[in-house]
Specification:
By secondary structure, the protein is mainly alpha-helical. About 80% of the residues lie in helices and about 0% in strands.
């Protein structure tokens, strides 16, 4: 029984975190501030909580200069990722923006094949056309009939997938240094640098940092505490302890629930073909997650 409980604990933690993260796009939508501003406060507040965690854990010690610089570069890539995703949410809604962002599994798998010489199975190759078929069912076959804003949102969603993939690949490089790596410290450093990059963009564009009301402040604090800090840390700790097939299914809860919240909270109009498309995309993402094998 103790072994069974030990095996279940990371699965339960991962499941709860996936549910929590599914609300991130909802919090962005209801924050009532421009997309870049919501992204800034997410990592700014998250940085504060992570700094507190580093102080409590005495994580501030001499670290590798190379890894510090890589973490700062990670922060830049994460800033681009959040900027693209938060903007996409405003254009196409939380559900579709999150589905598009989760297409990063295909970018990662392709990068893994070329960079890390990982072998890709047949089901991964089958997942690619499935994903596009599903997206066409959601979006519609006639792309030209979509509004310019909606098309921009779709491109930004795909850009999110690319930026996030680059971020994860660089983070993997930092994590490979077992002697130096500290989860809280490097998440803190990349979050701080990310907030500086986003804050700089807001300042240069002349936008306002103002938080207009209490509900916006609560939304942004929740993004920083629950999404940027708690869920992110728990997922990072739990993933290595869960089988890839199980982790893939659990992590699908985030885009699936994000789409459900979009329909439930923001009255997104989705017919039968749209729900079929969502199901196909989710299946394709799962196959993409589990459809690669380590090189021998």
């Amino acid at each position: 029984m103790p072994d069974r409980e030990k095996d279940l604990k990371p699965i339960i933690s991962l499941t709860i975190s996936a549910v929590i993260i599914s609300f991130s796009s909802v919090l962005v939508k209801i924050s009532h501030v421009p997309s870049t501003v919501s992204a800034f406060y997410r990592v700014c507040f998250g940085s504060f909580f992570l700094i507190c965690a580093c102080l409590a854990g005495k994580e501030f010690k001499k670290r590798s200069l190379k890894n510090n610089l890589l973490a700062i570069l990670c922060g830049l890539l994460f800033a681009l990722d959040l900027w693209a995703w938060h903007s996409s949410i405003q254009y196409v809604g939380p559900g579709l923006a999150t589905l598009l962002a989760n297409c990063q599994v295909f970018v990662l798998s392709i990068a893994g094949a070329f960079v890390f010489k990982e072998k890709i199975s047949l089901k991964f190759f089958l997942s690619l056309p499935m994903a596009f078929i599903g997206l066409f069912l959601i979006i519609g076959l006639d792309f030209e009939k979509l509004s310019p804003q909606y098309r921009t949102g779709i491109f930004l969603g795909f850009a999110t997938a690319v930026f996030y993939s680059m971020f994860l690949l660089l983070l993997r490089k930092i994590q490979s240094d077992k002697d130096d790596f500290s989860l809280f410290y490097y998440l803190m450093l990349l979050s701080v640098s990310c907030s500086l990059f986003l804050g700089g963009e807001i300042y240069l564009s002349g936008a306002s940092f103002a938080i207009p009301d209490l509900s916006t402040l609560i939304s942004l604090l929740c993004l920083g505490l629950f999404i940027q800090t708690i869920a992110w840390v728990v997922i990072s700790n739990s993933l290595p302890k869960v089988r890839a097939s199980h982790a893939g299914l659990i992590l699908l809860m985030q885009p699936a629930l994000s789409f459900v919240w979009d329909v439930a909270f923001f009255d997104r109009q989705t017919g039968i073909s749209g729900w079929i498309g969502v199901s196909i995309v989710l299946l394709a993402i799962y196959l993409g997650m589990t459809g690669k094998r380590k090189s021998s």
